[in-house]
What does this fold into?
Amino acid sequence: MYTQGLDSLGKDCLRDEAQDGAGVETRFQCRVDAEDKIEPKDWMPEAYRRTLIRQISQHAHSEIVGMLPEGNWITRAPSLLRKTILIAKVQDEGGHGAYLYSAAETLGVSRAELVDQLLEGKAKYSSIFNYPTPTWADVGAIGWLVDGAAIMNQIPLCRCSYGPYARAMVRICKEESFHQRQGYEIMMRLAAGTERQRAMAQAALDRWWWPSLMMFGPSDAESKHSAQSMRWKIKRFSNDELRQKFIDSTVPQADFIGLKVPDPALRWDEAAGHYRFGEIDWREFEQVLAGNGPCNRERLEARRRAHDEGRWVRAAASAWAEKQRAKSTQAA
Amino acid sequence: MTDDKLDWPLYEIFIRARSGLDHKHVGSLHATDARMAIEHARDLYTRRQEGVSIWAVRSSEIVASDPGEADALFEPARDKIYRHPTFYDIPDEVKTL
It folds into this structure.
């Protein structure tokens, strides 16, 4: 039905607004309301651009720093298969960072600026990556809980109003599912193992449960940017809604492998169809965000060291390309 | 802090998912030259057999239409629904048309 698209464009309000001489801002909001996608060269409010640059770059930084806690276990993974899986996962995270930096660049900010902001400690990244990974079970817990929480956050972003961000998120979400499943499988094996392995899995769940819940951000009442981001369709669900969704789907997964979620207040509310849960310690969240988490300094140092130690490689690549260009110009 | 500002040019990457399909835009990346762009695109966009062929094009070489002239460019096609086969009412008895 080719003709269908012609009469159901749903953009008629745009046309009318334009004819009425409505402001560009109204037209913009009208497009967003009609679920039209905003593309890099389209007009957009400055605050929309700034919000996206902030959010996409923080997201990119999180992927890059997120390689570190798990990278810690690549050399000590318990088998060759687990090692290759972990390398693939960490490589995916690096890839996600690259997709997102590219999406941010479409908004007129340079990659170098963004990398600088991270290395200088001016940029934020997800608080979760400032926690340590003392055992192999932490790798399982990260895949299961941290990637699980990330998926809850990221699936609605696939429908974000900004085209390049939405497209990057589609790619990322496809890959995250592997991350979550391999993590849960690690936990499943440990939970079915020896007494010590089981205890290791439980301890990792104890460590990662609350920080994972904090990944959804402050509760709706406290969240500064939420309302505007909802209006712009950058955000589709509130922090609390997503957190509840995560808890509802994760608690049965813990039950299934016989691990106990470390929350004495946790109980199933039959009438509501949701789990009720205890109070989150937001002081801890604020402390980690303020740079005082267990590994904040270590993470930034690792990024700076990687950047410094890679400098000669980048210089050599540039020099080689320059030399090839000179050669081909000479030959021509 | 980065004394070596990352000034590698930006490339747009297009991937042919399977033989017989068009190359489709998948994203962009920085590289020193075309060869590196292809190699990075392999690592970045085809880790799960998403492609059998890669095009890399310097972003600065792409000429794009201006969203501001979208109406001038595309509006004229809006009312020409007779260009579509479903515009024409043909009785069901008539076959293979």
